[in-house]
Amino acid sequence: MSFNGIEGNINRPGEIPWEIVVVYFALALLFVFAVGKKSGGLRKFSTVDLIYIGIGAAFAVVWEFYIGSFLGRFFPSTPFISVSFWGRLIIVLVVAALVRKVGVGMLSLLIFNVLGDLFHYGFGGEPMFTIYETLTYGLFVDLVIAATGGKLFGIGIKGGKLFGSFNLMSRKEADDEDIQGKTPSIVYLLAAVEGAVIGLLWAIPDPIFYRAFFSPFTYGGYVDWGRVIFDLIAYIPGDIVIGIIAALISIRIAKAVGS
Amino acid sequence: MKFLDIRGLEVTYLGKTKPSLKIDNLIIEEGESVLIVGKSGSGKSTFINTINGVIPNMISAEVKGEISVFGKDPRRTPIFDMSKEVGTLLQDPESQIFNYTVVDEVAFGLENLMFPKEEIMAKVEESAKVVGISHLLDRETNNLSGGEMQRTALASVLAMNPKALILDEPTSNIDPEGTAEIFDLLRKFRDNRKSLVIVEHKLERVLPYIDRVILIDNGNIVLDILKDEIIDKSEELSLLGVEIPEYYFYLRKTKSSFSSNLKGFVHSCPPRFSGNVLVLSADVKVWTKDGKNLVNTSLSLNKGEIVALMGRNGAGKSTLLKAIVGILDNKLKSNLSLKVEDKDLSKAKLWERGTYIGYLPQNFDVMFVKRTVEDEIAFGMKARKNYDKAKLKQFLEMFSLQKVKKEDPLLLSMGQRRRVAMASILASGAKIVFMDEPTSGQDWYHREILGREVQKLREIGITFLIVTHDSRFVDKFCDKVLVMKEGKIVLSGKPEEIFEKDEIEKGFGIYPPTEYQVKKYGSLEFLI
Amino acid sequence: MVPWNFLYENPLSQNIISWVIFFYGVALPILLILWIIGLKGFMEITKYEKGKGFLYKMNPITKLMLSVVLMGVAAVTVWWIGAILTLGIILLYLTMNDGVRKFLYISLLTFTSIIGGMWSVAPFTPEATLELVFPDPAKYTTIWVWPSYFLFMGYEPQLTLQALIYGIQISFRITAVLSAALLLVLTTTTSDIFRMFTKLKIPQAMTFSVLVGVRTVPRIFSLLDTSVKMQFMRGLGYGKSRILYPVYYLYAGIVAIVPTIVYLFRGAKTLAISADTRGFRAYPGRTEMKTLGFCKYDYVAFGVMFLLIILAVLANVYGFGRTIPYVGY
C-alpha cells in the first residue's frame, strides 16, 4: 500500500541508497534551520517580498500548466529541451533577484508547489515533492545568494570602486526627463556567471535525485544509469544558457520595478 | 494632544544623494484637517508614508530629525501599532483589496489584531454602516464599482478605529459618483473632529472639509496656509501644477472671499474645432450570452476632432471602444458595422483595423515588448513591412523621444512611457486613436501635458475618442462630448452645451467643472 | 502492417516525417483547442465564481482531502479506474455555475492532458514494460519506425499502437488529479482557502503568498490577453495565413510576459502597504470572524472518500491494482 501515491520502494536495482538521500536532506534541513535561526525565519521577508513570491508563483503556474505545456509540444521531447522547467527557472530567478534574501529560493519553490498543487496536481505525492524541490532547486538558489552576500546578479551593488558610480534602482517617477543610469557591462558579466552557476546546479536534481531515487521510490520506475548520466549531461547546456538569460532578464525587471 | 509634530525631518531613499523630503517644522493639531497638494513625485507620498511608518519600516530610507505621531515615533513603532493611531487609505482600490468578500475585507485588520470574534462582528457592522456598505457585506469584492470598492477599503481602515486618517488621493481612480460618496464621508469625519490628512487633486471639492492647505514641491513645504488664504495664493498654487478653478483668479483679482458674489465671473471656453470630414462611422451592438444588451448605439467621428466619451461606470464606454477595435471579451457577443474612410472594416482582422484605429488601454505598459524605444515604435512598421528610418525619426522627434531612443521602454517615466505607447500605435498607421481613461490617477500637471499633446496631434489630422470622467480636462481640451447611458449615446454636443444641462449630474453621472455652477448660481454656496 | 508502411520504409520520407512528428506531432490538436478556447477561456477555469451547487457549500478541507484521496486511488489502481474517476469528476463540473461551459473547458483540458501525457510516454516505453500489459509482442501493430539515430534521444526503435494505448492509460493518472484540483479552486473563495490554511496551521506569510498567487493567476491571463491583442493590432500577423495565427498567438504570449511581470510587480507595493497598515502579521496568529463548518455534503463526501479507499483496497486484492510499471514520467 502507499501513502498519497508514494510507494516507498527503496531497493530497486540501481537506486541511490536511501541513506545517502536521507543524509543529504537532513543536512539541507539543518542548513535551513541554521539560516532561519540566524536571520529570523519567515519574519525577515517583508510583505512586499511575500507578494513578489506570490505573483511569481502565479506566473509559474500559468507558464508551467498553460503556456509552457502547450509550447513544449512544439519542441522535441528530449532531455536537451525542457520548456516548462526553463520557464520556472527564469521566474524563480526573477523573484530571487528582487528579494535577494537567503531563503527566498526555498520559500519560492515551496509556494510555487503549493499553488501548483492547488491548480493542478492536487497535492498528490505531497509533501515529498515539495520537500524535494525546496531542498534542492530552492536551496541551490539560496546558496548562490549567500555566496554573493545578498547582491545576486550585481543588483544592490552601488557605486563601488570596481564598478564606478552607478545605481541599479529605477528612478522615481518625478525625474520625468531623466534617463536611467547605465549599468556597466562587468555587472552583466557577473550576472551571467551567477546565472550560469545556478543553471548548472539546477541540472543536477532531476537526473540524480528524481530519476535515480524518487521515481523508483514513488512509482517503482526502473533506474537506468546510462540514461541518468545522459540526462545530466544533456540538461547542462540548456540550463546554463537559460540561467544566463534569466539573470539578464532579472536585471531588466529589477531595474523596471525598482527593487 | 498633537496629531503630528515634525522638526528637522529629512527623508533620503537608499541610493539617493539628496533627501526626497525636507521639513523644518510642522505641527498638525488633533482634530485638524489638512489638504496636501503638489505634483506627482513632489514628495507627498513620502510625507504620508513617513507619518504612518511605512517609511522606513517597509520602504527603506534614512529618516533624520524628530517626528512624533500622537506621541509615538513611527520609526520605532511597528507599522501595525501605528495603524491603530493612523489609518491609511490609498489611491487605487483594486490593488488594495485582496479578500474575496466585502465582509472579509472589512474584518481583515481586526482579525490580524486578534480581536475576539464578537467584537470583530460588531466593529465590522459599525464601520460598514458609517461608510454605507452594510448592504454589500456579502458581495464579492471584485464585482464592486470603484466607489464601492474604495468605501470597502475605507471601512476596513475605520474598523480598526484609528484616531487619524490619511487619505492618499482617495478619488483619483474612481468615477464622479464614487468621488461624491467619498467626499460625503469627509463631511462626517469632519463633524466627528477626526484628524485628517488628505492628498487630493480636486482642491475645490474638498475645500469645505479642510482647515489648511500644504503645498509640497520638490521635497519641500513651499506653502502652508489656512484655507481662506487660497485665493491669495492661487497663482503660486497653479504655477506648481495644482488644479485651480478659474474663478479663484477672478476672486483674487476682485479681492473677494469665498462668500462673495461671483455674478461678474465669466467662464470662457477655448475655441472648439469642428471637423467636416467623416472618418469613422459605426453601428455597434454588444450583448451578453443571456441576452442582456450592453451596447446598442451608433458612433461617428469627424476628422481632427478630439471627442470625449463620458457617462457612468457601466454605461458601456469601454465596451464600445473594445467592440470597435475588435478586442471584446470572448464571452460577449457582438454585431458591428464599421466604416473608416469609406473602407468597410466590419469583418477586418485585428492588424487590419490597427492600420486605421489605434487603441491605448489604461494599462498600456503591457504593450511594451521590445528592448528599446526605437524598436518598440518600429514594431508596427516592421510587421507591416513598411519600415522607414526617416519615418521612425519623425516619430521620435514628434514625441521628444530622441534622447531615449536606445533606452528600455519599461525603465522610462510614466509620461515618457505614454508617449512611447502613443508613438507606437501611430507608427502602425492609425489616424484615429481611442484612449481608455488616460486621465485616471493623474495629477493636473500631467493631465495638462496630455491635453496639449493630443491637441498637437490633432493639428496633423489625428482624430481622438477619449473615455474620461475628467470634466475639467474635457472642458479645456476636447471639441465634443458624447454621453453614454445604458449602452446608448444619448447626448452629443460641445462641452459647454453638455455641462450646462440641468440634469447632467443626476441623470448621467457627469460632474461639470465647478466654473459652470459658479456661472449658474453666481456664488459658491452650492459647494457647502 | 499499416497502409502507410512505405513511408517509413523509404529513408527520405521516413526522416522528413519523423522530424515533423518529432517537432509538431501532437501540437496540432492542442493548438486547435487553444484556438477555440483562447487565453480567456483558461482564465475562466482558474477563477472562483459564485454558485449554488453543493460543491460551493462544502468545506474546503473536505475538498482538499477528496482530491488527495482521488490521487491516491488513481495512483494505486488499474488505469481504467483512473479513467472512470476522471469522468466522474468531470461530470461534477456540470453542477457548477455556468456548468456546461466549465464542463466543456475541463473536458478539452483533460483531452490535451491525455494527448500530452500519452506523447511523453509512448515513444519511450521499452518493450519489456509493454509486455507487462500486452504480453505477446508478436501481436504489436507497428505504426511508425523511427530512423535509427532517434534511439540516441531515448526513443524506442518503433512506435506501436500498444505503446500509444499504454501512454493513454498512464495519462489517466494525471487527469483524475488535474480535474479534482481545479474543483477546489473553482468552488472555494480565496477567503475560505485562507481559512483552510489557517486551520491547517500554515504560517501566515506562506498563506498570504499563496493567496496573492491565487488572485493573480486570472489577472495574468487578462493582462496577457490585452498585450497579445495589442500586438496584433500593431501589425503582428500582417498579411499572414490564418493557419499561422496560433504560432503568432504563442509568440505574442511569450513576449508579453516581461511587461506583464513588471506591471504586476509595480503594483506590489500598494498591496503591501494596504496589508501592513491593517496589521498583517502583527502577531503570530490571528482570530477569525467566521469559522469553517461542515455540512451534510461534507459528510457525504467523507462517505465517498471511505468508499474510494475501500475500492482501492478491493481493486488491489482482486488484481486490479497498479500492475503496470510507470516509466517514471
Automatic annotation (TrEMBL), chain A:
It comes from the Archaea. Keywords: Membrane, Transmembrane, Transmembrane helix. The chain crosses the membrane at residues 16-36, 48-68, 80-99, 106-123, 135-157, 186-205, 225-249. This is Uncharacterized protein. The lineage of its organism: Archaea, Thermoproteota, Thermoprotei, Sulfolobales, Sulfolobaceae.
UniProtKB/TrEMBL annotation, chain B:
Residues 6-243, 279-511 form the ABC transporter domain. It comes from the Archaea. The keyword Chloroplast does not apply. It is a peripheral membrane protein. GO terms for cellular component: ATP-binding cassette (ABC) transporter complex. Keywords: ATP-binding, Cell membrane, Membrane, Nucleotide-binding, Translocase, Transport. One of its GO terms (molecular function) is ATPase-coupled transmembrane transporter activity. SUPFAM superfamilies: P-loop containing nucleoside triphosphate hydrolases (SSF52540). Its main location: membrane. InterPro entries: AAA+_ATPase (IPR003593), ABC_transporter-like_ATP-bd (IPR003439), ABC_transpr_CbiO/EcfA_su (IPR015856), ECF_ABC_transporter_ATP-bd (IPR050095), P-loop_NTPase (IPR027417). Pfam families: ABC_tran. SMART domains: AAA. It is found in: Cell membrane. Belongs to the ABC transporter superfamily. Probably part of an ABC transporter complex. Responsible for energy coupling to the transport system. This is Cobalt ABC transporter ATP-binding protein. It comes from Candidatus Acidianus copahuensis.
Automatic annotation (TrEMBL), chain C:
The chain crosses the membrane at residues 16-42, 78-96, 103-122, 163-185, 243-265, 299-320. Its main location: membrane. It holds the Pfam family CbiQ. One of its GO terms (cellular component) is plasma membrane. It is found in: Membrane. Keywords: Membrane, Transmembrane, Transmembrane helix. Coiled coil: none annotated. This is Cobalt ABC transporter.
